[in-house]
Amino acid sequence: MVVSKAQKMAMVVVHIILILLAFGMVMPFILLFLSSITEEMTLIQNGYSFFPKKLSLDAYLYLVKSGGKILRAYGMTFLITIVGTAVNIFMSALLAYGLSLKNLPGRKIISFYVFFTMLFNGGLVPTYIMYTSVFHIKNTFFALIVPQFLMSAWNVIMIRTFFQNSIPTALYEACKIDGGGHLTIFRNVVIPLGKPILVSMGVFAALTYWNDWTNALYYVNNKKLWGIQSLLNEMISNIQYLSQNSNVAAQVDMSSIPSASVRMAIAFVGILPMLCLFPFLQKYFAKGIAVGAVKG
Prior knowledge:
The chain is mostly helical.
């Protein structure tokens, strides 16, 4: 196929625009990292810059001093993220598969109930009372997984739409002819063919668990169960407290605490694992979102 000069110019313009957009999305992360390795006084005097005049690793050295706590918090966060994401996707996929079946009794009522939970909830106080007084999960591992995130209505709707639009019902019927039940269909047909949307929704669930610190704030007093976000949030609060209270600051050498740059280092440490993981899941993510978002 012959490409005209106008088409070539249009392609060049489109590529330039996409490169600029991509660069604009990467710039905040670059600025975040450069700010975290900028010397404290330089950062305070000159502000954030892509070309810092003086570099320093004091912020990361400050974090290294709490290395044991950070490693334990990282391990807890990885455990919470893996277990929570797996349970979230499994339960969401089971419900989505049922809702994708047109002959399911009460399908419209169940679908409305799922959608209704996206708009309304019981409120913070009733939810807290229910989980602490009825389910007794306070100060347990389950308090970091169950509240708010165990199943997502948004994930269920997206997965259901993908199943309806991408998996032919003829495959279900063929599996039933071979003697397979719904569990067999779910395991051998739905899971393999639904991998793009499951991975895509898994990324969302993993990000939610990874970034969560509210569950630990509400339900967990034992710091050994804290994840990385809760620990880093406490470190920021401690630094702010020391810098804002002159009586306490007089007893502590505040010059040894890089309060400005350490906040940037904490943010960078918090998002780094997700940044490293996303490129490996990108191909599933793009396909799953594109197909799952089509109205069914």
